[in-house]
């Protein structure tokens, strides 16, 4: 018995089906790669913390906290929003400055400086902090957060964002 080896023949219809499928695959890949990059790019972006200008050191009297407020643009994924920061800045010698967050460490209420009591008072749960942010009484588990600041050309900058 003799066997013949047959070579498969590609007829015109099969050729066009293969060619159209290949072209469609190339076009789909051309759209898919940028689309995937567009969708995952926010997750790949690095967050950078920058220095935020608060104000002038000339506005801060000795041993009296001064509240500085600022608004920062924040981008989370595709959503761009604004976050407000508020810190109390104090100095006892006019040379060294300290910035303390105005957010209570108990449940996140905003504290205010009370000159009569010489303490930061949290209006929600009767908490009090001294001028350095240490807990005087109440439920907070830790002192107020101290912020990183620097003084440059008479202005106060806070690390954040």
Structure summary:
The chain is 20% helix and 38% strand. With 161 residues, it is α+β, with helices and mostly antiparallel strands.
How would you summarize the topology of this molecule?
Blueprint: H1 12-44, E1 50-56, E2 66-76, E3 79-91, E4 97-101, E5 112-114, E6 119-122, E7 127-129, E8 135-137, E9 146-147, E10 149-152, E11 155-160
Antiparallel strand pairs: 1-11, 2-3, 3-4, 4-9, 5-6, 6-7, 7-8, 10-11
Describe this protein with a few key phrases.
single chain, 161 residues, alpha+beta, Rieske Iron-sulfur Protein, 2 domains, 4-stranded antiparallel sheet, 1 helix, 11 strands, elongated
Strand order of the largest sheet: 2-3-4-9
Order of helices and strands: HEEEEEEEEEEE
Task: Please tally the β strands and state the result.
Answer: 11
How many helical elements?
A: 1
CATH topology of the largest domain: Rieske Iron-sulfur Protein
Strand content: 35-45%
Fourth-level CATH superfamily of the largest domain = Rieske [2Fe-2S] iron-sulphur domain
Q: Kindly state the percentage of residues in helix.
A: 10-25%
Give the rounded overall mean pLDDT: 81
CATH architecture of the largest domain: 3-layer Sandwich
Our Rg estimate from Cα atoms comes to: 31 Å
CATH class of the largest domain: Mainly Beta
From the N-terminal CA to the C-terminal CA, the straight-line distance is 84 Å
């Amino acid at each position: 018995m003799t066997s013949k080896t047959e070579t498969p023949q590609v007829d015109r219809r099969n050729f066009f089906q293969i060619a159209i499928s290949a072209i469609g695959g190339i076009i789909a890949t051309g759209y898919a790669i940028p689309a995937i990059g567009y969708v995952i790019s926010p997750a790949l972006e690095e967050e950078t913390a920058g220095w935020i200008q608060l104000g002038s050191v000339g506005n801060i009297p000795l041993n009296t906290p001064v509240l500085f407020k600022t608004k920062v643009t924040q981008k989370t994924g595709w959503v761009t929003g604004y976050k407000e920061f508020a810190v109390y800045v104090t100095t006892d010698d006019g040379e060294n400055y300290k910035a303390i967050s105005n957010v209570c460490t108990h449940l996140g209420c905003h504290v205010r400086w009370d000159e009569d009591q010489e303490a930061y008072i949290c209006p929600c749960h009767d908490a009090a902090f001294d001028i350095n942010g240490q807990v005087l009484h109440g439920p907070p588990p830790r002192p107020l957060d101290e912020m990183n600041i620097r003084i440059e050309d008479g202005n106060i900058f806070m690390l954040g964002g």
